Amino acid sequence: MARLNEYEVEERLERLQDWSIVDDEIVRTYTLPSFPAALDFVQEVGSIAENLNHHPRIVIDYKNVTLAATTHDENGFDEKKTFNLRRPVMPSKLSITFGSGSFVEQIRSRDAHIRVASGSGDAILWIETDSKSPFQSGNTYTLLESRGNFSDEGSLFYWSIPADQNSGDLFVHQVMSNPKVIGAEYGGFQAFRIGRVEKGTDLVLLIQFHETSDGARYAKSVERLTVDQYAEEAGKSFAPSPVMKTV
Questions:
Q1: 0.70 exceeded by the pTM?
Q2: Mind listing the pLDDT tens digit for each residue in 4-61?
Q3: Residue 202 pLDDT level (bands cut at 50, 70, 90)
Q4: What dihedral angle (degrees, nearest 10) is formed by the CA atoms of 218, 221, 225, 230?
Q5: How many CB atoms are located within 10 Å of the residue 122 CB?
Q6: How far apart are the C-alpha atoms of 195 and 146, rounded to whole Å?
Q7: Which backbone phi and psi does 223 adopt, to 5 degrees?
Q8: Domains and CATH numbers, the chain
Q9: Residues 6+ positions from 72 with CB-CB distance below 8 Å
């Protein structure tokens, strides 16, 4: 494939967020929620790079991961390789809203990455993205900690915690100091996220289990009660999370 000229490279960069040209490479630095999340992100990039047979230069600096890509065999940039090497997972924000009935399917149809879980009340809809939220209501959270990737199936637990900065920081520390409480040792553990609302201090916690049996077991476990206790101490008006089924 022929290399792209300077105009074509600049035109394609306009479609990507936060990439720039440095010498003969396109470069972007991602800031992940934690060092383990940065390692997970590098693994995902590595998998995509191997499938493309195009391997970027990767630099890890604690939570920051810098990717630098060009096309060595063509002595420049090409459409297929360089511009298909994009961030696969771990966006920096989590947007959440609630709804019921036809509203859920209407909103879900806007973006294939929107996930839904339903329970006895309104369904929860969420999406991880670096772009503007597709929801007209709800909240957007900056991710603080994350592990794993959400699935289209399984059980979801959701906590909304009205915490101030100090009590919220303590909650995050308590949870991350003892990953057992989020069910990380369960065989069906799928993913979790902790986020802080933009322009505020309230927190959100999502935990998903791929196996519904593990979700049912976690719902009655000491680990779940411990998270409830941490959340109540941080948020005071906290209400325990219902078990919701991802649909």
A1: no
A2: 556 565 655 565 556 777 777 778 888 776 788 788 888 878 877 776 677 788 999 9
A3: very high
A4: -70
A5: 15
A6: 9
A7: -60, -45
A8: 6-84 (3.30.1360.20), 93-246 (3.30.70.100)
A9: none
Total number of residues shown for the chain: 247
Written as six digits, the tokens of 107 are 């909103």
